[in-house]
Specification:
The complex is a heterodimer of chains A (85) and B (703). With 85 residues, chain A is of the alpha+beta class. Chain A contains 3 helices and 6 strands; from the N terminus they run E-E-H-E-E-E-H-E-H. In chain A, strands 1-6-2-3-4-5 form a 6-stranded antiparallel β-sheet. The two termini of chain A are 12 Å apart. In chain B, 61% of the residues lie in helices and 7% in strands. Chain B has 27 helices and 11 strands. The chains are: A alpha+beta (85), B alpha/beta (703).
């Protein structure tokens, strides 16, 4: 598992764990981010942060420290190979 | 920049729980939906009203009402604030929920964006928990078609058991069908199932919640009571009157139910939300097909430039300068035309009234005092406003403003505040009072306060006409051709300075009286939409321009009277106006200005647009405003009174940074509920202005 802020531009991933607590957890859930939600990273802003993501058909900007609170599994091939550790 | 009565805070969002019917037989319909799905456009299309809509979240900060009739039935439509859910985590959500619960609406139209129906299911399902009579309005079908999204509406309709109507409200498509659907609303047949433990807890509460079934859906009440930590604290209970004993017994049953399934309020809420999203996936499964992927190629191309690393900031600056350039270039001619008209009208009316035998001093008071100030304001403000507002609205409708917030968020985060502050700043261009109300879109209380207190650093429309005049007179000159362009560029630079001051002030507040870490930030960036140019022009002129102008005139009338009296009442051969200005002169000089300007700023507190007129009136000492149609005449008066480019710069800077007008201050008082914060809102920008002017004056005196 990696954090949402760690994936690359245009990379797609699936949410596996929501670490956010309280109001921000609700906000994420409001926009449809729960375990199993597919998210695609679009691009970072001109100053590197926040970053826009595609969530259920909507473009949502999220700051990197907030994206850190979302645990994801990337959908790319190499992440599907079981890790030895 | 929503400048309507309600957005300037005349209606508090919480006051409206019952719809105002025109006759008892009226059918109340509520309009709910996620932010930015074109809900207000649907509202306008249904009611034929012109509530302002904008392409960014949080537009409707309070409920608007409209009326329409269809097939002999009369409907009252209540536009609820845009929300993602009804869990009441924000004031908007609470208002929306309370109205759906207690507003006695016959049916609720849930509007959703055809581009992301699945997400709207969350809200729709929550609504059906309270009231089964729901119609799903799938709006923005035209956009979805362009994005090649196919939606099987019949399937969704069948699964939910409610009517699903496709609309493109901007072009009035589907509105008749929507009205027809209201004639015969079917109840939602879809049953939401929550987790096993939640269902068990709901069952345990049944005996208590059934007691309230006449007031509220027992199942919904149970869910709300379970998902908060203390049932008596639940905002819902404010609307249900029960005795203290009943309250205690209810609280006991709730905590027992929670304990028996080992779940806390947060666990319940988590389960509820997850279940709703799962149900939403189930309902839309197989019904939506994205032929071109979910992110439109066109949006991607535009975003690559407007939010890209290289072009984002130059593009922002150029767009700002372009808007000003068009405003300045096209405002000149109508301005002088209006001014001429007012002068002629004044001469004519003055003569007319005088000939009726009216005493001269009364005529002077009315025409050389009040009428002239009003004429000044109308001719100086109306043209730039009538051009600036529509231009800005076009940018807004196109969907650019959320991109500004996106680009600038990093800066605001560095200052421990919220990127949405840039949206409220944009509203401030129109009117700072509206900007202050707009701060409701910021979730964190601390960040909202920062945005409120710093909003005045954005020059509102009452201020930038004066800035344009001074820039033209002292820095650009009248050489046609490049002059308009240079003025626009300088003005854009001043705005950038204002943004800098906003950031600095935000940082200062975060480090002192409003300590705290930046909270989270999520911002939806809607698709770019082609602005409806004709509609925008008409609307922004009628909704905004006339509104702001009306307010300015209302303030200008008494201000004109007071100024006339001050300049015509003499004490020891010198007018009171001159007494005040010579008293203020030493302070004014220190700030690179003079006593007259300082006095003008103080007297201009009710409305900033009259600052320059007052100054000119005091200089000419004619006891009345002189004719000002000609900019070169202003130049003459000012330079002959010792103005230099440094003076002009100081005045511009001070105009950018001083106490906001009284309307804004009253709005701050209303929004914060605190005299203390209102005082800060007045003093903070003034300190910035004083320091900046002192520095400018100091540096200028060295060279």
């Amino acid at each position: 598992m990696v954090r949402l802020n760690e994936i690359k531009d245009s990379e797609e991933c699936t949410v596996v764990s929501l670490f956010a607590k309280g109001i921000i957890r609700r906000r994420f859930q409001d926009i449809g981010i729960v375990e199993g939600t597919k998210i695609k990273r679009l691009r970072s802003g001109p100053l590197g942060d926040p970053t826009s993501y595609l969530v259920r058909g909507a473009v949502i900007a999220i700051r990197s420290e907030d994206a850190y609170l979302i645990g994801v599994e990337t959908n790319s091939w190499d992440s599907q190979i079981p890790r030895s550790d | 920049m929503g400048l309507t009565n309600s957005s300037v805070g005349l209606n508090s969002a919480k006051e409206i729980l019952t719809a105002k019917k025109k006759s008892p037989g009226d059918i109340v319909i509520a309009l709910a939906g996620n932010p930015n799905v074109g809900k207000s456009t649907v509202f306008n299309a249904l009611t034929g009203m012109n509530q302002h809509t904008g392409n960014w979240p949080g537009k409707t900060v309070s409920c608007a009402q409209g009326y329409f009739s269809h097939e002999g039935k009369n409907f009252v439509l209540v536009d609820l604030p845009g929300t993602y859910s009804l869990l009441a985590h924000s004031p908007e959500e609470e208002v929306a929920r309370d109205f759906i619960c207690f507003g006695k609406s016959a049916a609720i139209i849930v509007v959703c964006d055809a581009g992301c129906i699945e997400r709207s299911m969350n809200l729709l399902l929550q609504v059906t928990e309270i009231n089964k009579n729901v119609i799903l309005c799938v709006n923005l079908m035209d956009e979805a078609k362009k994005k090649k999204i196919n939606i099987d509406l019949a399937l969704i309709s069948k699964r939910l058991g409610i009517k699903v109507i496709a609309t493109s409200a901007r072009s009035n498509k589907g509105i008749e069908e929507l009205k027809n659907a209201l004639l015969d609303v079917t109840g939602c047949s879809y049953e939401i199932t929550y987790g096993e433990k939640t269902e068990q807890a709901i069952f345990l509460l049944e005996s208590e919640t059934e007691k309230f079934k006449d007031i509220i859906n027992p199942r919904f009440l149970a869910l709300r009571l379970l998902s908060c930590e203390d049932p008596s604290e639940s905002s819902l209970m404010k609307h249900i009157s029960i005795s203290n004993e009943e309250k205690e017994s209810l609280a006991l049953t709730v905590s027992d139910a929670k304990a028996s399934v080992f779940m806390s309020g947060d666990d319940f809420e988590d389960d509820i939300v997850k279940s709703l999203i799962k149900c939403g996936e189930e309902i839309t499964a197989g019904a939506i097909e994205y032929q071109n992927g979910q992110y439109s190629k066109r949006d991607e191309k535009i975003d690559r430039i407007l939010t890209g690393k290289i072009f984002a900031f130059p593009a922002m600056f150029l767009l700002l300068a372009l808007v000003f350039y068009i405003t300045i270039t096209f405002a000149n001619y109508p301005s002088s035309l209006l001014s001429m008209g007012f002068t002629k009208a004044e001469e004519y009316l003055y003569g007319l009234i005088l000939s009726t035998g009216c005493p001269v001093f009364i005529c002077d008071f009315i025409f050389k005092g009040v009428f002239r100030v009003v004429g000044w304001i109308v001719s100086v403000m109306l043209p730039p406003m009538a051009i600036f507002f529509p231009l800005f609205t076009l940018l807004e409708d196109w969907g650019y403003l959320p991109r500004v917030a996106f680009n600038l968020d990093r800066c605001f985060k560095k200052c421990d505040s919220c990127g949405k502050q840039s949206l409220t700043m944009c509203m401030g261009f129109g009117c700072n009072a509206a900007g202050v109300v707009g701060c409701r879109i910021i979730d964190s209380e601390r960040e909202r306060l920062i945005a409120i207190l710093t909003n005045a650093f954005v020059p509102c429309n009452g201020r930038f006409p004066a800035m344009i005049t001074l820039i033209t007179v002292f820095f650009v000159g009248f050489a046609s051709g490049v002059s308009g362009f240079l003025s626009a560029l300088y003005l854009a630079l001043i705005i950038v300075a204002g943004i800098g001051a906003t950031l600095l002030a935000s940082k200062l507040l975060s480090k002192t009286v409003l300590k705290g870490k930046p909270s989270f930030f999520t911002l939806e960036m809607p698709s770019y939409r082609r602005p409806q140019i004709a509609k925008t022009l008409v609307r922004s002129i009628f909704d905004r321009t006339i509104f702001v102008l009306g307010r300015a005139v209302v303030v200008a009338i008494p201000a004109g009277a007071v100024i006339w009296i001050l300049s015509n009442v003499t004490v020891g051969d010198v007018s009171v106006l001159n007494h005040i200005s010579s008293f203020l002169d030493p302070v004014g000089r220190l700030l690179g200005m003079d006593g007259v300007i300082l006095m003008a700023f103080i007297l201009g507190l009710p409305a900033n647009e009259i600052v320059i007129p007052i100054a000119i009136m005091a200089y000419t000492s004619s006891g009345a405003l002189t004719e000002i149609g000609d900019v070169s005449l202003i130049s003459e008066i000012l330079t002959s009174n010792g103005w230099t480019p440094v003076t002009a710069l100081c005045v511009i800077v001070f105009s950018l940074m001083h106490s906001p007008c009284t309307t804004t201050l009253l709005t701050v008082k209303k929004e914060t509920g605190s005299i203390k914060w209102t005082a800060v809102a007045a003093i903070l920008p003034t300190i910035f202005g004083v320091v900046a002017c002192l520095l400018i004056n100091l540096i200028a005196s060295i060279f």
